[in-house]
C-alpha cells in the first residue's frame, strides 16, 4: 500500500502556478502535474529533483514470493465486504461462490477454535472501530462511502447504519478480517493466517475436510458453535432484515451439514460465552452489540481435554508469510504524513470520493474495469494487467482534478 | 498555441472525427468505441481512455452526440455503469459538412482549379 499525492488541475481562469518547493518530498513536487490549459496564466516550474518514479519505486519493498499476486485498483474501500455480501446473499452460481464461501468458513472456524490455536501460540485478537467517533481523514473518507443498502443487514441495533461500527480481527497482531452487518464476518484479502491448518499457500481454505478427516469431535463442536450462531441470528431483537437473516442461516446450515451434522448432536456440550469467567478478555475487546458475543470461541476447559488431545497436524508445511510489498517505507510514510493503514480490504479511494464527478465519469471506471476483465480472460500477465489498470485509474483521478488521492494498492493472493 | 474552439465541423480534431464516425451507425459505449476505432484501422489507430472520455464529454456539450446510462447490471466491484453514446443531429451535420468539404476539395484538385 502506498500513497501518492496528486496536485489538482488549475482552473482555466485561475491565476498563479504550481511551484514545487519541498524537494525532500517528491510526492508533492514535480511529477504528474497536468498540462496547463492554453489560455491559463502561470506556468510549471520544473525543479531539478530525482526522477519521482524512481523515488517511488525505491520506496517500495518487494520480495518475490511463490504466490501469484496482483494489484487491484478499484475505487471503493468496501469492495471486499461487498464481495462477500454479494456472494453469500447471492446464489451458488456466482463465479466466486466456492472460493469466497471457503474463505468465510475458514475464518469462522478459526474464530470458533481460537482458544485451541492460542495454545499453539497463535493469538486471535479483536479491536473495535467506530467510524462515527473519528474525524481522521482516512476514517472520514471511509465513513462517507459506507454501504447503505439495508436489505442485507443482519442487525441494526439502533444504528443509523450498522456499517459504522465493527470489530477487526487480528491473527498474531496482523489484521485478518472484520465483522460485517451482512455476512457476520469476512476475511481480509491478504489476511496472513500462518499457523492455521486450513491456511495454505496464502489462501484461507474451507476447514470442513480438515476437521472431518482428522477429528470428528472437533467438527461436531464447531457445528454446534455454528448452530448457536444460527439461533442468535434468528433473534429479531437485533433488528435485522428477515430475508437476509434467513439467507445467512442457510449458508451457515450448509456449513453445519458439510461438517456432517444437521440437527442431531451427540451429548457434547460446549461452554457458552455466558459461562466464561472473563468473557470480555479473550479477544481483548468486549463484543457489546448485536449477536457478536456468539463469536467468542469455544471454551476449552479441564473437563473437556479429550476433545483436544489430538494435534491438528494437518499440514506442517507452513508457507512463508507474504511480505507487505506495497507498504511504503516508514520514512516515506513520515514524509507523506500519512501512516500506512492496511485493513486488507482497501483497494483505492479518494478522500473526496469524486463527489460530483462520480455520476459524470463512472462509465470511465466501468470501461476500465471491463477492459481489465478482458485482459485477464485473455490470459495476459496479471502484473501487466494490474499495472495498466493502475495507470488508467491514475489518469482518471488525475483528469477529474481531485485534489488529493491516496492510491492504496493491495495484493490479492490467488492460487 | 491555443487550439481554436469552434463548432465549425472543419475544426473537428481527428479524435473527435473518429469518435463521431464510431457512433454514427449505432450507439456504443466507451470500450466499444475504442474497439471500433482499432478494428476499423486494422490496429493502426488507437484511442486511449483518457482521450476518449473528455472527447465524448466535449462532443456532448457541443450537441454532437447524446448519451444514456446503460441498463446492464453495474460493474460488480465498483458499481459503475456503462454510458452509451450515439451521434446527434449536429454531429451528423458536422460529418456531412466535412465530407462535403473534402469531396469538394478533391474535385477542385482533380481539375487543377487551384
| Average pLDDT for all residues of chain B | 84
Q: Can you tell me the CATH topology of chain B?
A: Arc Repressor Mutant, subunit A
Helix proportion of chain B: 40-55%
Q: What order do the SSEs of chain A take from the amino end to the carboxyl end, as H and E?
A: HEHHHEHEEEEEHHHHEHHEE
Question: Could you name the key traits of this structure?
Answer:
heterodimer; A: 415 residues; alpha+beta; 2 domains; 4-stranded antiparallel β-sheet; two-stranded antiparallel sheet; 10% strand; disordered C terminus; B: 114 residues; mainly alpha; Arc Repressor Mutant, subunit A; 3-stranded antiparallel β-sheet; 4 helices; 11% strand; elongated
Sum this structure up briefly.
The complex is a heterodimer of chains A (415) and B (114). With 415 residues, chain A is of the alpha+beta class.
Model description:
- The complex is a heterodimer of chains A (415) and B (114).
- With 415 residues, chain A is α+β, with helices and mostly antiparallel strands.
- Chain A has helices at residues 52-59, 79-88, 97-112, 114-119, 137-144, 208-214, 216-234, 242-258, 330-336, 357-377, 382-399, and strands spanning 68-71, 124-130, 165-171, 174-180, 184-187, 199-200, 203-204, 349-350, 405-406, 411-414.
- Chain A has eleven helices and ten strands.
- In chain A, the strands form four sheets. A four-stranded antiparallel β-sheet of chain A has the order 2-3-4-5, with helices on both faces. In chain A, strands 1-10 form a two-stranded antiparallel ribbon. A two-stranded antiparallel sheet of chain A has the order 6-7.
- In chain A, helix 10 packs antiparallel against helix 11 (382-399).
- The model of chain A is unreliable at 1-7, 21-31, 65-74, 302-325, 342-353 and 408-415 (pLDDT under 50).
- By secondary structure, chain B is mainly alpha-helical.
- Chain B has a single domain (13-110), classed as Arc Repressor Mutant, subunit A (Orthogonal Bundle), CATH 1.10.10.10.
- Chain B has four helices and three strands.
- Chain B has helices at residues 14-22, 30-40, 49-61, 89-110, and strands at residues 28-29, 65-69, 83-87.
- In chain B, helix 1 crosses helix 3 (49-61).
- The chains are: A alpha+beta (415), B mainly alpha (114).
Amino acid at each position: 500500500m502506498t500513497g501518492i499525492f496528486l496536485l489538482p488541475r488549475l482552473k482555466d481562469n485561475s491565476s498563479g502556478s504550481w511551484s514545487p518547493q519541498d524537494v525532500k518530498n517528491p510526492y508533492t513536487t514535480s511529477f504528474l502535474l497536468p498540462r496547463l490549459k492554453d489560455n491559463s496564466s502561470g506556468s510549471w516550474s520544473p525543479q531539478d529533483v530525482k526522477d519521482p518514479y524512481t523515488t517511488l519505486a525505491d520506496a517500495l519493498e518487494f520480495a518475490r514470493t511463490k504466490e501469484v499476486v496482483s494489484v487491484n485498483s478499484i475505487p471503493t474501500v468496501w469492495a471486499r465486504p461487498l464481495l462477500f455480501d454479494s456472494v453469500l446473499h447471492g446464489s451458488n452460481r456466482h463465479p466466486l461462490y466456492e472460493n469466497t464461501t471457503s474463505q468465510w468458513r475458514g475464518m469462522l472456524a478459526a474464530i470458533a477454535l481460537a482458544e485451541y490455536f492460542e495454545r499453539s501460540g497463535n493469538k486471535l485478537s479483536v479491536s473495535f472501530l467506530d467510524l462515527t467517533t473519528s474525524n481522521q481523514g482516512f476514517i472520514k473518507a471511509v465513513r462517507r462511502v459506507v454501504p447503505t443498502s439495508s436489505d442485507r443487514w443482519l442487525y441494526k441495533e439502533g444504528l443509523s447504519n450498522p456499517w459504522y461500527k465493527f470489530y477487526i480481527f487480528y491473527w498474531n497482531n496482523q489484521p485478518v478480517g472484520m465483522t460485517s452487518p451482512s455476512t457476520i464476518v469476512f476475511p481480509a484479502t491478504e489476511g496472513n493466517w500462518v499457523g492455521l491448518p486450513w491456511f495454505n499457500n496464502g489462501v484461507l481454505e474451507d476447514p470442513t475436510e480438515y476437521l472431518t478427516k482428522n477429528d470428528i469431535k472437533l467438527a461436531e463442536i464447531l457445528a454446534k458453535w455454528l448452530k448457536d450462531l444460527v439461533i442468535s441470528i434468528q433473534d429479531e431483537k437485533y433488528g435485522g432484515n428477515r430475508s437476509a437473516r434467513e439467507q445467512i442461516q442457510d449458508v451457515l446450515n450448509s456449513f453445519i451439514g458439510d461438517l456432517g451434522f444437521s440437527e442431531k448432536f451427540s451429548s457434547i456440550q460446549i461452554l457458552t460465552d455466558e459461562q466464561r469467567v472473563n468473557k470480555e478478555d479473550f479477544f481483548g475487546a468486549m463484543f457489546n452489540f448485536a449477536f457478536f458475543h456468539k463469536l467468542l470461541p469455544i471454551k476449552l476447559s479441564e473437563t473437556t481435554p479429550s476433545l483436544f488431545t489430538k494435534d491438528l497436524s494437518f499440514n506442517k508445511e507452513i508457507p512463508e508469510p507474504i511480505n507487505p510489498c506495497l507498504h511504503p517505507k516508514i520514512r516515506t510514510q513520515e514524509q507523506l504524513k500519512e501512516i500506512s493503514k492496511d485493513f486488507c480490504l482497501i483497494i483505492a479511494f479518494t478522500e473526496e470520493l469524486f463527489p460530483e464527478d462520480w455520476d459524470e465519469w463512472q462509465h470511465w471506471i466501468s470501461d476500465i474495469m471491463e477492459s481489465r476483465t478482458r485482459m485477464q480472460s485473455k490470459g495476459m500477465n496479471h502484473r501487466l494487467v494490474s499495472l495498466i489498470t493502475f495507470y488508467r485509474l491514475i489518469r482518471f483521478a488525475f483528469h477529474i482534478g481531485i485534489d488529493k488521492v491516496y492510491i492504496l494498492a493491495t495484493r490479492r493472493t490467488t492460487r | 498555441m491555443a487550439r481554436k474552439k469552434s463548432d465549425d465541423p472543419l475544426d473537428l480534431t481527428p479524435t473527435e472525427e473518429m469518435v463521431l464516425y464510431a457512433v454514427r451507425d449505432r450507439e456504443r459505449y466507451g470500450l466499444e468505441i475504442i474497439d471500433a476505432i482499432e478494428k476499423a484501422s486494422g490496429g493502426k489507430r488507437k484511442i486511449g481512455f483518457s482521450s476518449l472520455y473528455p472527447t465524448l464529454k466535449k462532443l456532448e456539450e457541443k450537441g454532437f452526440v447524446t448519451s444514456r446510462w446503460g441498463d446492464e447490471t453495474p460493474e460488480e466491484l465498483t458499481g459503475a455503469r456503462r454510458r452509451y453514446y450515439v451521434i446527434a443531429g449536429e454531429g451528423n451535420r458536422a460529418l456531412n459538412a466535412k465530407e462535403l468539404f473534402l469531396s469538394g476539395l478533391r474535385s477542385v484538385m482533380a481539375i487543377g482549379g487551384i
